[in-house]
Amino acid sequence: MQFPLKVTEERTSTVCSGETAWKDFIVIASKIQEHSGNSFILVDENTEKYCLPVFLSMTPGMAKFEVLRIKPGESSKSKETAAFLWDQLAAKGADRTSLLVNLGGGVVCDVGAFVASTFKRGIPCINIPTTLIAMTDAAIGGKTAINLNSVKNTIGTFYLPEATIIFPGFLKTLDQSEIRSGLAEIFKIGLVADRSFWEFLQRIKPGGLAEISSGDPFWEEVIQRAALLKCTVVEKDFYDRGARAILNFGHTFGHAFETLSHYPGHLPVSHGMAVAQGIICACFLSQRLSGLNEKEVPKIVELFLSVFGSMPVNETDIPEIIRLMEQDKKIREGIINFTLIRAPGEAVTGRTCSKDDIYDSLLFYMVVGRDYHSHEGH
Ligand SMILES: NC(=O)c1ccc[n+]([C@@H]2O[C@H](COP(=O)([O-])OP(=O)(O)OC[C@H]3O[C@@H](n4cnc5c(N)ncnc54)[C@H](O)[C@@H]3O)[C@@H](O)[C@H]2O)c1
Q1: Of 50-59, 254-263, 281-290, 326-335, which range is least confident?
Q2: For residue 107, which atom of ligand 1 is closest to its CA?
Q3: How far from 330 is each of 14, 83, 88, 275, 324, CA to CA, in Å?
Q4: Mean pLDDT taken over the chain
Q5: Which of 42-46, 134-138, 352-356 has the lowest mean pLDDT?
Q6: pLDDT over threshold 80, residue 332
Q7: Angle CA 110–135–180, to nearest 5
Q8: How far apart are CA 345 and CA 75, in angstroms?
């Protein structure tokens, strides 16, 4: 299946998934290669080991790709890695027509597409995401980024890849914790953009995540629908000036939880896990401030806790969480803007609230998390 992501008349990207995705890749890449000197494939050490052999077996007979390799992990979203890749491309004779394929998770896609967008003022690139987050979020929508001195996504561009190729088979080798992390963003897009998708997701059983890479049609549909929803949101607001803010649902709380989890005495949690906890808080705020029906909140909370569990948070942590939220980059003139929901599938952006509201949301989170742990005997 192919769906176009069209941001202007001239700027379109194609998102390909399902059985024909590799054929689509071969057609799209070969067309670029007809006019191109040489082609490159960017991997990290893990995707080189687990995904490159799959890529090569799925694309027989194609012109050779030179491999560019970076270290796995967030630390590779750096100016040093970008400079290393610019140097490599230059040394290997890349020109404006060269193709760069980004084979990896959000890190490889973010830094690879950033390098593609800046090398010789922009060379064609194709994203082949290998994590759940990248398949449904990071590899779609044209936001590229590197971090500056550990501050996330400080440097970046808006640059559409020629295509994004989604092949869930890559998830076979991905850690369950990474899969769970990706699932949080999938739940989020259902909650902010499509009630029927949100209801479809209710079929997910916490113990059933292992089936995600087995070619199970349910999971293929989950991934495809989440990717399509991301395209729909991006088409409305490619440059992130308004409508795209619905994707921030749960993130202001989530970023603070994520940072807190790295403090001494806390257990580090993944981005997705922190976002899942943030969504619980944002649902409480949504009931109070944007009319979310009180019957919906326990259903959402229950699903999130059963799939993601909860982070231990004490009341003494709350002032620090609020301080961290006040530092979030989305804050303008000291006012925190929240994305909330009116109902599953209906987001409202730009909602402000008092410190007491935030405090109460965190207290609510603390209590429901604690109750869940004591009932489940965790
Ligand atoms: N540009 C966007 O719109 C956007 C959206 C969401 C997230 N992001 C960015 O995405 C990044 C997070 O992405 P991520 O969660 O994919 O992280 P990641 O790219 O670091 O991948 C997670 C880990 O899994 C490994 N891996 C990847 N695919 C694998 C596979 N198939 N089998 C085994 N191991 C594999 C990687 O080597 C890495 O160690 C963050 O930097 C975030 O800012 C960007």
Answers
A1: 326-335
A2: 19
A3: 30, 28, 35, 15, 12
A4: 92
A5: 352-356
A6: no
A7: 105
A8: 34
Which residue has better confidence, 378 or 142? 142
Q: Of the residues 7, 45, 130, which should be mutated to test ligand 1's pocket, given the most ligand atoms within 8 Å of the CB?
A: 130
Cα of 105 to ligand 1 centre, how many Å?
Answer: 3
Residue 159: name the closest of 120, 206, 215 by CA: 120
CA separation for the pair 112, 307 (Å, rounded): 32
| Number of the ligand 1 atom closest to the C-alpha atom of 140 | 3
Least confident segment among 82-91, 131-140, 197-206, 324-333: 324-333
The angle, 0 to 180 degrees and rounded to 10, between the axes of the packed helices 217-236 and 176-193 is 50
- Our answer on whether the CB atom of 74 is closer than 6 Å to any ligand 1 atom is yes
The CA 199 to ligand 1 mean position distance, Å, reads 27
Q: Which atom of ligand 1 is nearest to the CA of 134?
A: 16
Token readout for 276 is 């899942």
Residue 195 CB-density burial (10 A; 0-12 exposed, 13-18 middle, 19+ buried): middle
Q: Would the CB of 139 count as within 6 Å of ligand 1?
A: no
With a cut of 80, say whether residue 207 has pLDDT above it. Answer: no
Q: What value does the mean pLDDT take over residues 255-272?
A: 90
What's the CA gap between 68 and 70, in Å, rounded?
7
- Give yes or no for residue 47 CB within 6 A of ligand 1: yes
Binding site membership of 104 for ligand 1 (Cβ less than 6 Å): yes
Say how many Å lie between the CA of residue 280 and the centre of ligand 1. Answer: 23
